[in-house]
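Example record used in the benchmark description.
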Amino acid sequence: MGVRQSESLRKLIREQIPDRHFGIFSLTGEGRMMPNGREERSGCVIDDTGKHYQFWETWSPDLGKSILEWEMYEPLAVEIDGWLQWSEYRLACQEAGVPYDARTQSS
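Model output (structure tokens):
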């Protein structure tokens, strides 16, 4: 993911959770190009309160720009245990400012 694309995604996430620090993990290209030349993407976010979210970046023809389909996600403990094995998840926690033992916060 290029710097410009990374910043555009971060801007979309900040619109969803303003005034929060966050980290992105499990970012995946979806294989479909949007009219702005970027690939649709999906992934997960952890914020500085330990809440988890899932997103899908897609194109809105009505708005003429990319948007996020966004929802809060409450992972199972077994999922978090698996994620802790990923350096990508641990880095997302670090970027969000969440200690690993506070990672299970929900709602």
